[in-house]
Amino acid sequence: MSGGVYGGDEVGAIIFDVGHQSLRVGYGGEDTPKAEIPTTLGVWEDTVEALDSGQNVKKHYNIDVTAIQVRKKDMEMVSLMKDGMIEDWEMFERLTEYTYKQRLHALPEHHPILMTECPWNTRLKREKLLELMFEKFNVPAMYICKNAVLAAYANGRSTAMVVDSGATHTSAVPVHDGYVITQGIVKSPLGGDFITMQCRQFFEEKEIELTPACLVASKDVVRERDPPRWTKRAGAQPTSSWMSYMVRELLQDFQMNCLQVSDSPYDEDVANTLPMKHYEFPTGYNDDFGSVRLMIPEALFDPSNVKGVGASILGVGPLVTTSVGMCDMDIRPSLYGSVVVTGGNSCLQGFSERLNRDLASKTPPSMRLKIISANSSSERRYGAWIGGSILSSLGSFQQMWLSRQEYEESGKLILERCA
User: Fold this and answer.
1) CATH number among 2.40.10.10, 3.90.1210.10, 3.30.420.40, 3.40.250.10, domain 1-39+82-149+384-419
2) Quick one: pLDDT band at residue 308, thresholds 50, 70, 90?
3) What Gene Ontology biological process does one annotation of this record name (predicted)?
4) pLDDT in tens, 170-210
5) Residues 6 or more apart whose Cβ sits within 8 Å of residue 73
6) How far is the C-alpha of 406 from the C-alpha of 412, rounded, in Å?
7) For the domain 199-301, what is the CATH superfamily, name and number?
8) Structure confidence by residue, pLDDT tens digits, 244-256
9) Within a 13 Å sphere around the CA of 304, how many CA atoms are in the beta-carbon half?
10) Torsion sign across C-alpha atoms 186, 188, 193, 196
C-alpha cells in the first residue's frame, strides 16, 4: 500500500451494480456477473422477550429468489431502492452481507470494490455508502462510478449518449470523455414496471387469472382459451405485497417471451398481420397473443395514447433529442454518433431498431446517427456491470482506488476523486 496505489494487478476487484430490480455482483475481469439478486426483500417481525423491560421487536429478512418464494404469513415485500438510489440502508447492509457470504464466498477485507450509482445520486448517499463499506465491511479500497459512464465503456466509448431503460424509468444521459454532463440528463418514469402494469390491466380486462407458479399444486392440460383446471397449494395466506411481487414476476416472464416493439408507429392492421405468440400461464391457461404484443410496449416510444399518462412525458426518441439539445454545440455530433442502448428493458425485441427509426427522422442532416446496441441481451442487461468489470481490470485504473488509508486520513473528502 505505497504511494496511494492499491494492490496492483493480482487482486480481484468485486463489482457491485445496484439497480432497482436487482443487484448484479461479480469479479472484475469476468464477462458476466456471478450472481443477480433481487433488491426487493421479504421482511417480517418477531417479538423477542428481553431480559430487562419486556419485549423487543426483531426484524427478519428473506433474501434471494428461493427464499422470497417461500410463503410466510406476515412477510411483506419491501424494495431497498427509490428513484434509482439506495433508500433503506439496513436492508442494503443485510443484502451485502448475504452476497459476500452466500454468493461470492469472499471476505470483504480481501477485495477492493467498484460500486455503480445513478447519475443523479446525492452527495449524502455517496458519503453514507463510503462510510458503510469502509467502517462496517472493512474493504481495503473502493471506487464509485456512474452507471451511464460504465455502460459507455462496455461498448468501447468514452463519449456517448447512454439510453438506459430499466425497471422504474428510462433515462438519456450524455457522457463526454468519461464524465456525465449533468445538465443534459433527461428521464421519464416509463420503464419495465410501467409495461408490467399495462400487461396487468390487459389481463384484468380479459379476465385472465394471474396466479404465480408457487401457489399451483397441480394443473390439467386444457385446450386453448378453455378455463384452467388447477388445484391451489395449501399454506398460509400471503400478504398482498408478496402476492403482487409474485404476479409481477409472472408478468415479466410474459414480457420477455411475448412482447415486441413495432418497427414503425403502432398500426393495428399491420400488427394483426404479424405471427402470434403462444403463452401458457402457471395455471395451465394458454392462448395466442397477437396485436397486443406490439401495442403494450408502444407506450415507451409514444406515450400520448396511453390512459393516465400526461402529455409532458417523453417517449424514448424525444428523450434523446431533448438531452442532446441541452448539451454544448461542439459535442452534439459525437453524441449522435454513439447512442448506446442499455438496461433490462432494451432486451425487448425491436427496441434498438425502433429507436433508430425515431431518431433518424429527428437528427439534423449534418449529423451522422449511430445506435450502438450489444448483440446479446445479457450484454445490454448488464451493461454497467460489464463496464465496471473492464474498468477495474485496467492497469491505468489501479491508482484511482480510494484506499482505506486515505479514507482514515482525509475522511469523506476523498469522494471528490470519484467523478
Assistant:
1) 3.30.420.40
2) confident
3) nervous system development
4) 999 999 999 999 999 999 999 999 999 999 999 999 999 99
5) 236, 237, 238, 239
6) 9
7) ATPase, substrate binding domain, subdomain 4 (3.90.640.10)
8) 999 999 999 999 9
9) 4
10) negative
